[in-house]
Amino acid sequence: MPHFGKTLSELLEISPISIEEFASRIGCQVPNIYKLKKKESVDIRMMEAVSRALEVNPMIFIDPELLRNEIPDSKPIYKNQALLGKAIMNIGWKEDVRNLKEKLEEKLEEKERLIAEKERLIQLLLNGKGNLNLV
After folding, report:
1. What beta strand segments (E) does the chain contain?
2. Is the pTM of this model over 0.85?
3. pLDDT tens across 28-49, in order?
4. CATH number corresponding to 4-92
């Protein structure tokens, strides 16, 4: 599993919320956030709390490539603050999301193709048509 603290640091760097706000959301003090950034791994409850506080998919901590694919290198072009709650509008990420979706669909199709191949092989072996001569 990837280094939790490194992924957390990257997320906090691009997050619109402050370290203080983040600490408050997960119910701890700011010094503990710096300790979290150094941890290689955490338990599932902490991962869930961090994910909820940052409003990200917890899978980012398991596969950080999602972070690189979902979020472009540049900061959002436009931010807007709401009177009640958080409102951020990001312009310019639509193409990145579309590319990510296409890549995931391609991976899914490949997995489905492999499953179909394996099921076909199993059927051949079960029907006795798959005589293997391993000499």
Report:
1. none
2. no
3. 999 999 999 999 999 889 999 9
4. 1.10.260.40
